[in-house]
Amino acid sequence: MEVPPEMLDALAGWFAQSLSPDAAARRAAEQSISSAAASPGFALALLGLAASPRHDLQARLAAAVHFKNLLRRRWPKPDADADDAADLLPASDCAIIKTHLLQLLLTAPPLIQAQLSEALAAAAACDFPARWESLLPSIVSSLGTAVNAGDVVATNSLLAAAASLFNRFRNAFDNNALRLDLKYCLEIFAAPLLEVFLFASRRLQAAATTANPLELRPVFECLRLCCEIFYSLNSIDLPEFFEDNMRQWMTEFRAFLTTSYPPPVEADGAPDALRAAVCDNLQLYMEKYEEEFRAYLKEFVEAVWGLLMAHTASPSRAQLAVTAIRFLTTVAESVHHALFGSPEAMKQICDSVVVPNLRLQDEDEELFEGNWVEYVRRDSEGSDADTLRRAACRLLRGLAANYREQVAALVSAQVQQMLAAYAADRANNWKEKDAAIYLVIALMQKPGATGGGTPVVDMESFFTSVIVPELQAPDWQSEPMLKATVLRFLKEFRDQIPKATALALLPSVVRFLTHESNVVHSYAATFIENLLIIKDAVPVPGVNTVTRSPRYVAADINPFAPQIIQNLSTALSFPDSYENPYLMKCLMRVLGIANITGQIVHEITARLVGILMEVCNNPKNPDFNHYLFEALAAVIGRTGEQDPALLPAFEASLFPVLQRILVEDISEFWPYAFQIFAQLVNLSRPPLSQNYMQLFGVLLSNATWDRPPCVPALVRLLRAFLRKIPNELNQEGRLPNILAISRSLLSRSSTEDSAFYMLNTLVENVGLDIMNPYINEIWSALFTRLQSRQAVKFVNSLVVFMSLVLVKYGSGVLVSSIDAIQPSLFSQILQRFWIPNLKLIKGALEVKLTAVASTKLLCESAVLLDAAAAQLWGKLLDSIVTLLSKTNQDLAQEQNDGADAVDIQKTSGYSVSFVRLQYAGKSEDDLLKEVNDPKQFLVTSLATLSAQSPGRFGPVIEQHVDPANKSALLQLCAAYNANIV
């Protein structure tokens, strides 16, 4: 694989510059890399640089990371859409990569090797084994050579590659194709894996007394990798080979758990890393293959329990303890729970396993002070087994499943003991109170949880006597870890705190927003934000369903909003919280709910714009940046609508930074900038200023649409302009330009949603007099695309668009304009696509639009009212009734799910997937406001039609409408007092 040296040198220079603190140099380098990515052989050049020993290690590592990400994005997938083929790596490059990647991986330094292993896994996920048959035999052959030579380092490199290859079996959806791939891998690799495992185990036994960890570390690593591969190959089912050889594997596993190594070796952490991998395998077998594993269970429970009793200075002991406790938890939750059922065993678990691992450790305090982001992730965002504390509590919950009263008594006594210790010496025993609160958080029932919880305290009394005093304490800056746990308690049980109590405590919580600890002010912000999104179930009158209504509204939060905003603004200037996503998310939520006026609006807008100016220098925190733009959108949206006089101030503040984003090509922020621009345009009154008209010109440039992530935001901005200045499309060839852009978007499945959104926008906002010369062009483009693209999503979008044309311009225009393309084409489209897909339409607005449009077709269109079209008429009615038979519960669910999940991608508009800033605009307009109920519209329209031709439509309904739908139609007629005669 030959890559020109000058190309490698150029790439190395760019990657070195991409790490520069100078924003201009960094962006120039990133642009150079981005431009080079489009050229043939770029992936080969990246691989060549990653493998080049003459270049700087940091540049090589950056190239390896880029290479891995490139393969994840652009490696050809077997089921890839033909539309996206241009973005994929050429087949010739892929063939060269597959030829050289494994060998280059074996010779690379460890850091680069890890990236190349992931790259290999990315390519193998698409090609292995069917299109890369040589890969696994090559690994096995090289493994044999390395083992025969006693080369453990080379063996580990090959095992790492195999581990990344087999990792797919852990989480993939089980199906026949996957099992065939697994069978292939087992046939080739299962026996060699056992050979390597036993080779490394013998090597370890021979050197068990060696006190030099550097000599033994590669052997432990080899065994750990074997255990990882064991897990992957056993994840789907118990393979016959592993069942036949279970005794050999289990004998070695038990030896690793029960053998002690010299203190320097134990302190190195490698033995515990291996033991943790063994415990993962025991966990797997206990969960999935309990019957085959039960013969070994008792001895492994004893071995794992013994490990938890032992204490070492190993840096891997915490991870081992987590996996060991997880295994014991699985046993405790199984039919074998009696192993822990005696009072003595249970007390020993509580005293020797749970409590020691529940108390804060020195490393917890170090993490709290030194890496608050990681502390928060582990403490409040991780899984149950992420930390020792959570794993220990889960073990208790597992025991409580079968021994609830015993566990409750033990834990209740332990909580009281901890609180008594705290009361006796508050200054030195605050960790006892922290542990007591943590126990209550872990074991008490939370809203929406299953399993019943374990009542260890009276919650109301505990809240009043333990939690509230910490919130209201005058020394609120003291014991920050305890304060953080108290705030976590509030967050966990926020739904259970009465509204009046929560509002009374809010001032106490608000002051914690300026606490000097990053964790504490982050937890305070998280509690406030979580509090404001609580919804309560409210029955819908007259309907057997419920809707969800916010518990806290503007009137509740308004008295506190100025102080919350001020404190959050202050906290955002604290060290390490300049880009704290929890603070910004809370600020976003408060601004989106509270009514703020006057000077506060100007101050917070200026503050947010200042922060945005700063992050433009180096956008590195996507969550923070998202909430920052949401906060801006919330200020503009809520206050701008209430007081239009604020718009000039918003424009003066925002235009400089938004223009900087476009001019300096800060690509991460382009979609946000266009959405904010759209919001400002929506708030403006025609005639629009020159600044906006210049932006309109940029919007109509083809180059602006070349970035797929920006397309939905651009369509939203176009929509805003068309609402304000639809007649401007008649000037300077703008409408043909927009239609050309829509055709380009329509040609790719990844952007076809945006093409429909653009066409919908045109029809909604532009009159037929302007659109008429171009309507045939639109149909030609859509139906040409339909010939090769008949996916449900595309056809549904087409049905919605045709419905929109009908509602806006009339059924005659719809039918005649389509038939102008080809005679009787509309009838063919109706029969093949409209009628079958109508019943698949989703979304409240879309269902209403398509149902009303279809009803108008039934009752107004000459094509369908022709006697020869009776069958077509009946089938269309059948689809309309199916569509409208969706339950109110379904529609309520659609309307409520994710409605205020600001950071979740949301589908909006006429069945078009559109990721947007939730606070940056209103919901989509309903063009059929005069139709309150599409069901009533259907039956009253049918009644009117049938009254004009009595006796004509009853037989058609009898013959062509499904019996269930006939019954549903009769019920609708009765409900709305309409008759089809």
Tell me which oligomeric state these chains represent: single chain
Cα-atom radius of gyration: 33 Å
Widest sheet: strand order? 1-2
Which structural category fits the helices and strands?
A: mainly alpha
Continuous helix count: 50
Q: Which range best describes the helical content: under 10%, 10-25%, 25-40%, 40-55%, 55-70% or over 70%? A: 55-70%
Give a quick account of the main beta sheet: strands, pairing sense, barrel closure: 2 strands, antiparallel
What is the typical, i.e. mean, pLDDT? 89
Taking the alpha carbons of the first and last residues, their distance comes to 80 Å
The coarse overall form would be globular
Give an overview of the whole structure:
There is one protein chain. By secondary structure, the chain is mostly helical. The chain contains 50 helices and four strands. Residues 891-901 and 903-915 have low confidence and may be disordered. Residues 29-107 form the Importin N-terminal domain. Belongs to the XPO2/CSE1 family. It holds the Pfam family CAS_CSE1. This is Importin N-terminal domain-containing protein.
